[in-house]
Specification:
Blueprint lengths: L4 E5 L6 H11 L5 E4 L6 H13 L7 E4 L2 H7 L3 E4 L6 H7 L4 E6 L2 H9 L4 E5 L15 H10 L4 E4 L7 H6 L4 E4 L1 H4 L4 H12 L1
Parallel strand pairs: 1-2, 1-8, 2-3, 3-4, 4-5, 5-6, 6-7, 7-8
């Protein structure tokens, strides 16, 4: 079986410079690197792409969250859409060469996004996570149902650690998305190697 996907997502806490430095160290082990910075302007996001490039991260691995305009102008490979974003089908029709991921939180949303011809979905949050304090994780049962119903890859997100990767993969996930597990690790390179090994 092919290695499963590993997505790194910025957390909005680190400076883009520091995020780019970590991404530069570990990108060879990572499938995709997401700039997810809801408070930053288009100009700042463009700067983030430049910083990643300067650290050796290829454009083919960079994903812009929500901002289709920035993704297109910066010539990155992918955009990650949310519920409030532009319609995925419209984006796909207008920019057929861009890969589109979409964040979903239920089977209904996942099926809807597959019909809109997105390339993959993020499903979560699977476990409790510090990025969503007070909200219980959605668990593995619906993740398993979604992976069985969809033909496109389902990437699990939310509280995923080396200790629970196996059960996430057993539920059918095509990969995982990680923030704190890599960005807050004492040694990000050592941490990413552990994730990469467990995803093989």
């Amino acid at each position: 079986m092919l290695d499963r996907q590993l997505h790194l997502i910025s957390n909005g806490k680190l400076s883009l410079q520091r995020f780019a430095e970590i991404a530069g160290q570990i990108h060879s082990y990572v499938t995709a690197i997401h700039i997810r910075e809801k408070q930053k302007s288009a100009r700042e996001l463009m700067s983030g792409v430049t910083l990643l490039e300067e650290q050796g991260v290829p454009l083919s691995k960079i994903v812009i969250n929500d901002r289709v305009d920035v993704a297109v102008v910066s010539r990155v490979s992918s955009v990650q859409l949310a519920y409030h974003s532009l319609d995925a089908q419209l984006v796909k029709r207008t920019f057929p060469n861009i890969r589109i991921g979409c964040s979903v939180h239920s089977l209904e949303e996942a099926l809807s996004m597959e019909q809109k011809q997105v390339d993959y979905v993020f499903y979560g949050h699977v476990y409790e996570t510090d990025s969503k304090p007070g909200l219980p994780g959605r668990g593995l049962r619906e993740l398993e149902v979604i992976t069985q119903k969809l033909q496109i890859p389902v990437i699990a997100i939310g509280g995923i650690k080396p200790s629970n990767i196996k059960e996430v993969l057993n539920a059918g996930a095509s990969g995982i998305a990680v923030m704190s597990g890599l960005l807050e690790a004492e040694n990000p390179l050592e941490a990413v190697r552990q994730y990469h090994h467990l995803l093989k």
